[in-house]
Each structure stands twice: as structure tokens, then as C-alpha cells.
């Protein structure tokens, strides 16, 4: 995914919203996804291999495909902290 260099933090948040919607839609279609923010660090490398218009930056990548449910890595489950340990909802 690419974005114009002139875009600021608000537009980057919009990209995150778009990314989530894209990933949810892919899931509805039976595809697995993995958002990859590390691609931002490799803007120059990506631009050596992919045509990117002038004035645009690499924002993130998305792995997209069919999940192999038999692969051990896809059965791994991480523990998660309860919401109360890290967040609050105020005014609700």
C-alpha cells in the first residue's frame, strides 16, 4: 500500500481504518491476512522492485492467501491481558 508523501497523521489513521476493513472483507471471502507495517522501513528497497509514482511512500504490506490450518504456527494461541489491565472506557 502506498500513500502520498504530503499526507499527515490523520490520513495515516484513515489508512489503518481502510486496512482493517480490507482485512475483514478478505476474511469474509475465505482469505487469511497479515498486516505488515515493517515495509515502511524498506521504502527505497520496495521502490527498486515495484513501480511507485513520484511523491508516494510505502505505507504497509498485507500478506493475503489461504490459511494452512494444518501448519503448527497456525494453531498457536497467545495469552492476552484483560481489557481492564490496559484500557478504560469513559463516558459510556
From TrEMBL:
<keyword id="KW-0285">Flavoprotein</keyword>
<dbReference type="InterPro" id="IPR000415">
    <property type="entry name" value="Nitroreductase-like"/>
</dbReference>
<dbReference type="InterPro" id="IPR029479">
    <property type="entry name" value="Nitroreductase"/>
</dbReference>
<dbReference type="GO" id="GO:0016491">
    <property type="term" value="F:oxidoreductase activity"/>
</dbReference>
<protein>
    <recommendedName>
        <fullName>Nitroreductase domain-containing protein</fullName>
    </recommendedName>
</protein>
<keyword id="KW-0560">Oxidoreductase</keyword>
<keyword id="KW-0288">FMN</keyword>
<comment type="similarity">
    <text>Belongs to the nitroreductase family.</text>
</comment>
<feature type="domain" description="Nitroreductase">
    <location>
        <begin position="4"/>
        <end position="66"/>
    </location>
</feature>
<dbReference type="Pfam" id="PF00881">
    <property type="entry name" value="Nitroreductase"/>
</dbReference>
